[in-house]
Amino acid sequence: MASSSTGTTTEPVLWLADLDNSNVAQVGGKNASLGEMIGTLRSEGVKVPGGFATTAAAYREFLSENDLEQPIRERIDAFHADTASLEDTGQAIRRLITRASMPTALESAIREAYRRLAEQHGSRQLAVAVRSSATAEDLPDASFAGQQETFLNIRGVENVIEACQRCYASLFTDRAIAYREEQGFDHFAVALSVGVQRMVRSDKAGSGVMFSLDTETGFPDVVVIDAAWGLGETVVQGTVNPDEYRVFKPLLEQEQYAPIIEKTLGAKEHKMVYARGGDQPTRTVATTKKQQRTFVLDDDEILQLARWACAIERHYGRPMDMEWAKDGADGELTIIQARPETVQSQRSQRSFTAYTLRERGEAIARGLAIGESIASGPARCIDNPEDGDRVQPGDILVTGMTDPDWVPIMKRAAAIVTDHGGRTSHAAIVSRELGVAAAVGCNDATERIADGDTITVSCAEGDQGVIYRGELAYDEQEIVVEDLPRAPVDLMINIATPSAAFRWWRLPTSGVGLARMEFIINNQIKAHPLALTRFDQVTDADDRAAIEQLTAGYDDKTEYFVDHLARGIAAIASAQYPHPTVVRLSDFKSNEYAALLGGASFEPTEANPMLGFRGASRYYHENYRDGFALECRALKRAREQIGLDNIIVMVPFVRTLGEADRVLATMAENGLVRGENGLQIYVMCEIPANVLLAADFAQRFDGFSIGSNDLTQLTLGIDRDSDLLGPLFDERDPAVLKAIAMVIEQVQAHGCKIGICGQAPSDHPDFARFLVEHGIDSMSLNPDSVIEVLQALG
């Protein structure tokens, strides 16, 4: 191969298989990376379509032979002098390039390379992807979404040559010129290589993007995969809401596990496919209802892509941003691009900024949260980037979707809201790089938000971005983890939803002390478990229709419940793995259960639900046994199939020893046997009986967790929600403190662990000190209270 890392090759075309990362100067980061993967990752099973690349030297020869450098410089100088607009400058330079002649040697080399590539695949008119690869792009400190053009389904050598020349012209799109100006890159120091790759027939299957870390929080132990039907441009451009999968990396090499911790079905309303005739090689068509309700990838394919992502990350030694495609003709998965991830990987792993809303308002739209910050300001609803002058610094951009032409507008916005797009859409990628909050894929934000409305965009509440009406107060705190004092006891965190779990991975904590199952049921599953086991008994027609829609794609409605609950639990457990995650069995009260879809058909009407049919009493009762069986199935799957064996199960509101025995027996009947496969079972200590009979409960359970809210309520005889009695409700009352001190002493005397998951230590530093003084093993805190408690104890 006549090339070197100095960029002195005179070869106009090089084969991808002959390239590696030392060839960035010749063929740009994108093409060099493709060659690197072809040459080094084949042994790990990573498949990359072959092809060839024109060189940077060929591009410079193109400019030289057509005497283009001087007229291009003149137009750039006019732009610098403010005598020509960016738009006029870019248009003029692109016209110069597209009207020039391709040098004879370069044209001949492209013709011969395309002929050979087509011959290798048994086709005279092989369909190829023609992609731009700038010599300064995809470097760790210089990457931006979609600067140069890609052309798909290009057939025939004349069309390939034309597409190559159009790629050259795209080095001077308005957005590319603006980016180089901002980055301080000399326009002539950046050259363009064109990669020509065999097209993968993903128009007949699907494609998408994946990252080897969590794109919003930087959590390093997951692979995030977005998937849509057809060619991948719809995902990159953000014109569809794709499927989203998350895979837990530390368990991928253990073949007995399938560590897929999230599967979210995207709407995928349309797809890009090959066009038949006409001037355009691709077209966009609507997807079928079946495709919209079907995942693009099955579990084996998700795991295969995740393993490839890990292999690529290991090889490059850094988090990676990859594009993949599935061939509908042979079912083969391929990697079609890989580049360094440039946002989260450059942030400090030891410090972070925590944002917390101080108040709540009316939520008017919701989407995927991009970033973890909060912003308020006036909404600017625009449909076309030509109207971008209306967006002033501090405004919040609200639009259907963005593409690279929107970038100058996005830079002025305090936050961004879009109707369409997933986590790897253009809007999401650029928002991350700009460091602004964004809620993407909101579906109807442009209908619900009026131009000029003051709104607050909150991306600090998990993976859901919420747009509130009005300007809400919030706190912003910069936290340097290594500066924090060492805790005298294990500090854990309370997590309500899987979406919030990854936000707090940098905290110096030792696990999740309380994962609330009912929050997963309420927020993700939405249906009453008995409405799935006894669907024929659901009487409300609207509830029946909603349940049918939720469970579309599941032959067995109960599998919908088990699948979502298992993955939700596993996601929470993965965030602190291998530290323990204590998962509390469902603790809805009957009125809360009744509010779930279909719930009214199965729940009693109780005068005092707080002391009624809740907690342990439900699990063995005939009125809920089959619903509880689904909870057990989900926990067993999360531990034994997904592989998160750090999950500990906790039983709430156990009133008597006999009830404890019945619950444990029912759990065993459903496959959750204490001690089997390392399973530990804890009990909540929230009833005076749990304190008085602590020694007896300790013989039945592996640990205790104090629920200080209920324990205070029942010790003092106060409804904690009563406005009239509110001032009397205090976890620091001497009677409550005495009960807690007693139970800590008794439980530890019998070799059991004991912690607390109630609100009190998060709210009262003196209460936290009291717990430490009495030797508690752990405290589980609200995540936003960890720093304050650490400092109080330090």
From the structure above, extract its key features:
794 residues, alpha/beta, eight-stranded parallel barrel, seven-stranded mixed barrel, 30 strands, 35% helix, 21% strand, disordered N terminus
Describe this structure in words.
- The N and C termini lie far apart (63 Å).
- This protein is α/β, with parallel strands linked by helices and 794 residues long.
- 35% of the residues lie in helices and 21% in strands.
- Strands 23-24-25-26-27-28-29-30 form an eight-stranded parallel barrel, surrounded by four helices. It has a seven-stranded mixed β-barrel with strand order 15-19-18-17-16-20-21. The protein has a six-stranded antiparallel β-sheet with strand order 9-8-7-6-12-13.
- The chain is elongated, with a radius of gyration of 29 Å.
- Helix 18 (557-575) packs across helix 21 (625-640).
- It has 29 helices and 30 strands.
| Broad structural category | alpha/beta
How can the largest sheet be summarized? 8 strands, parallel, barrel
Number of helices: 29
Question: Any idea what the radius of gyration is?
Answer: 29 Å
- The percent of residues in helical segments reads 25-40%
- How do the strands line up in the largest sheet? 23-24-25-26-27-28-29-30
Number of strands: 30
Gap between N and C termini: 63 Å
Task: Report the portion of residues in β strands.
Answer: 15-25%
- List the uncertain runs: 1-8
Say what oligomer this is.
Answer: single chain
Mean pLDDT: 91
Summarize the topology.
Layout: E1 13-15, H1 24-40, E2 51-54, H2 56-65, H3 69-80, H4 86-98, H5 104-120, E3 128-134, E4 150-154, H6 157-169, H7 174-183, E5 192-198, E6 206-211, E7 222-229, H8 233-237, E8 243-248, E9 260-264, E10 270-274, E11 282-286, H9 289-292, H10 299-316, E12 320-326, E13 333-340, E14 351-357, E15 363-370, E16 374-381, E17 396-399, H11 407-410, E18 415-418, H12 426-434, E19 437-440, H13 445-448, E20 454-458, E21 464-469, E22 474-480, E23 490-495, H14 498-501, E24 512-516, H15 517-525, H16 529-533, H17 541-550, H18 557-575, E25 581-584, H19 590-594, H20 616-619, H21 625-640, E26 647-651, H22 657-669, E27 681-685, H23 688-692, H24 694-698, E28 703-706, H25 708-716, H26 734-749, E29 753-756, H27 760-763, H28 765-773, E30 778-781, H29 786-793
Parallel strand pairs: 16-17, 17-18, 18-19, 23-24, 23-30, 24-25, 25-26, 26-27, 27-28, 28-29, 29-30
Antiparallel strand pairs: 1-2, 2-5, 3-4, 3-5, 6-7, 6-12, 7-8, 8-9, 10-11, 12-13, 14-22, 15-19, 15-21, 16-20, 20-21
